[in-house]
Specification:
The protein is α/β, with parallel strands linked by helices and 586 residues long. The protein has two domains: 169 residues, 2-enoyl-CoA Hydratase, Chain A, domain 1; 261 residues, Alpha-Beta Complex (2-enoyl-CoA Hydratase, Chain A, domain 1). Helix content is 47%, strand content 18%. Strands 10, 13, 15, 16, 17, 19, 20 and 21 form an eight-stranded mixed β-sheet that branches. Strands 8-6-5-4-1-9 form a six-stranded parallel β-sheet, with helices on both faces. Strands 2-3 form a two-stranded parallel sheet. Strand 4, helix 3 and strand 5 form a beta-alpha-beta unit. Helix 3 runs parallel beside helix 4, helix 12 packs parallel to helix 13 and helix 21 crosses helix 22. The termini are far apart. The relative contact order is 0.13.
């Protein structure tokens, strides 16, 4: 009986596996055949810019991989900007329609796309924008357009920037689970949420200055394209002068209140179409397939662009995690490639493991001995993110980049009170005085705390030294702008933490100038496995992703955000050089 059951199970398993392989083969054939087709872009077309997926700096997909793009959750900033750049010089594309976005991107990424759209418009082509509702970041992007339109019953959010920090002291007291915190830095925000129930004056000051600097950058850009003074824009924000479509038009934030069919009539008019002619749209996703095949920069000499994005953890790393494995491998390849004459390190990270940060810093230092290394900062390059950037020959930041946060800390969970409350008693046995280093169920001993504090101070001094050497500043000068404080890109320029304000293209151009290159191509590192490959290698991971999505739907965004912060904390090992907390700027 068991033999028959096992035999039938084997047959069913084989059939199931064959079915999966057959489906994969059909998908492969379909993708290969479709990749051979040229994306059809008709004359007198509009590029429809809809940014519905999360934006990462770089997806790392291989254009030759037929599975590239399959099951990818994000879209690459580099691909979006390249598509706009190609469209700028494509005679078939007459204009861009920014249509009903709900952009999931950082401010610096949004600013980079906005700048690229400005270059497109400078070529004499039009940009129109329409939405049923404009969130604040969506409006910032749309404000580059020649004309902005909104649905008659739509909503426009324009009220200034804010952020929220969660505090856990009372939760610890009620649960009996406490976070033991050891840190260095006058700005105690790095661990403040575990120690206090309220925001300190120092933390409130730094966050207020940071938000004000980011907001100033936004309204400076909006003021130029909408011809509204910055003071008037602040009045509009303070009075909620754009809260209805009618008020938004009266305040000058938008040009007209129309339904979508009326908006399409305006697009048809801009294209000078006859009454019965249809508008030719080219979607961004389709156009990216076309633009990715276009080589904008070419030459035997190359500039390597190494993308480091995500939190910093010890290990291999991946598309959304910076590990010393994948990043150092990319830096070594770029350093040893004779055709690569300069390296641009693109950093988009709130930091993480101090050890990993130093390992990557060392590889940057080795590369710098051989060829120029330029850093381009994305949305955030703070703490460990700044650590790996500090040794470069030159550092570029966007005005809206969040950087600095030069400080380190350690957190250790302690469950003594919970153990007492539920009747757990832990007894330890060891061979030597310090053999039992630390127990979750016993109060932290001074000897252990002093040991960790010594490591924190040593790591902080090493951090200061790395920055001091890289930025040609004294240790005292670095310490005065460190202490865990965060700065905007604009502020960082003023205090000497960055050299210039600019985007990735500006950093690449600077690298070419330093390396004395006239013509050059660009090589991007690292190459990641496609989303399809990752799912096939780790079906459990795909299952976990599905569970996470279901959990998010069930408990809501706010509760899910708290859960993710706690999960991220659980992964932190060793001394941390990271942003003080997750800044969700709205």
């Amino acid at each position: 009986m068991n033999f028959l059951r096992n035999f039938l199970a084997s047959i069913l398993g084989s059939l199931f596996a064959f079915g999966i392989l057959f489906v994969m083969f059909l998908i492969f054939v379909s993708l290969v055949s479709s990749s051979e087709d040229t994306v059809a872009v008709k004359d007198n077309s509009i590029l429809e810019l809809q940014l519905q997926r999360p934006i990462s700096d770089y997806t790392g997909s291989n254009e030759l991989d037929p599975f590239a793009g399959i099951f990818e959750e994000s879209q690459g900033l580099d691909e979006i900007i390249q598509a706009i750049e190609v469209a700028k010089n494509d005679d078939r594309i007459k204009g861009i329609s920014i249509n009903n976005n709900f952009i999931i991107a950082g401010l610096a990424q949004t600013q980079a796309i906005r700048k690229s759209l400005g270059d497109f418009k400078a070529e004499g082509k039009f940009i129109y924008a329409y939405a049923d509702f404009f969130m604040q970041r969506d409006y910032y992007l749309a404000s580059v357009a020649d004309s902005i339109f909104i649905n008659p019953v739509g909503v426009l959010d324009f009220k200034g920037l804010s952020t929220e920090v969660l505090y856990y002291k009372e939760l610890q007291e009620k649960s009996g689970i406490k976070m033991e915190v050891i840190r260095h830095g006058k700005y105690k925000s790095a661990v403040e949420p575990y120690l206090e129930n309220n925001m300190s004056d120092a933390n409130r000051t730094q966050l207020t200055l940071l938000l004000q600097s980011l907001w100033n950058s936004m309204i400076f850009d909006i003021s130029k394209t909408r011809s509204i003074s910055e003071s008037d824009l602040n009045i509009i924000a303070d009075t909620l002068g754009g809260r209805t479509p009618k008020f938004a038009k009266l305040s000058g934030l938008i040009d007209d209140v129309v339904f979508y069919d009326e908006y399409e009539n305006k697009l048809a008019s801009a294209l000078q179409l006859k009454k019965d002619e249809d508008i030719n749209y080219s979607t961004l996703n389709d156009y990216v397939k076309y633009s990715n095949k276009k080589i904008l920069k070419s030459g035997d000499d190359k500039i390597a662009v190494v993308f480091a994005q995500g939190e910093i953890f010890y290990g291999e790393g991946g598309p959304n995690i910076i590990g010393q494995g994948i990043i150092n491998e990319a830096l070594i390849k770029a350093r040893e490639d004779e055709n690569v004459k300069a390296i641009v390190l693109r950093v988009n990270s709130p930091g993480g493991s101090a050890l990993t940060s130093d390992i990557i810093w060392r590889e940057v230092a080795l590369a710098k001995k051989v060829k120029p290394v330029i850093v381009s900062m994305g949305n955030v390059a703070a703490s460990g993110g700044y650590y790996i950037a500090a040794g470069a020959d030159k550092i570029f930041a966007e005005p809206t980049t969040i950087t600095g946060s030069i400080g380190v800390f350690g957190t250790v969970p302690n469950m003594t009170e919970l153990a007492d409350n539920i009747g757990i008693n832990a007894e330890q046995v060891g061979t030597n005085k310090n053999a039992v280093e630390y127990s979750l169920f016993e109060p932290m001993q001074d000897s252990f705390k002093n040991q960790i504090q010594e490591s924190i101070e040593e790591t902080y001094q090493t951090f200061l030294q790395r920055v001091s050497e890289g930025r040609n500043m004294t240790m005292a000068q670095v310490d005065s702008v460190a202490q865990g404080r965060v700065w905007s890109g604009t502020e960082a320029l003023e205090v000497g933490l960055v050299d210039e304000l600019g985007n990735l293209d500006d950093a690449i151009a600077a690298a070419a100038e330093i390396a004395s290159l006239g013509s050059y191509g660009v090589k991007k590192f690292p190459k990641y496995k496609s989303g399809f490959e990752r799912i096939m290698e780790d079906l459990e991971g795909a299952s976990l992703q599905l569970k996470e999505n279901l959990l998010k739907d069930e408990i809501g965004d706010e509760a899910y955000k708290v859960l993710k912060e706690l999960q991220s904390f659980k992964k932190q090992q060793g001394i941390q050089a990271r942003m003080p907390f997750a800044l969700d700027i709205k």
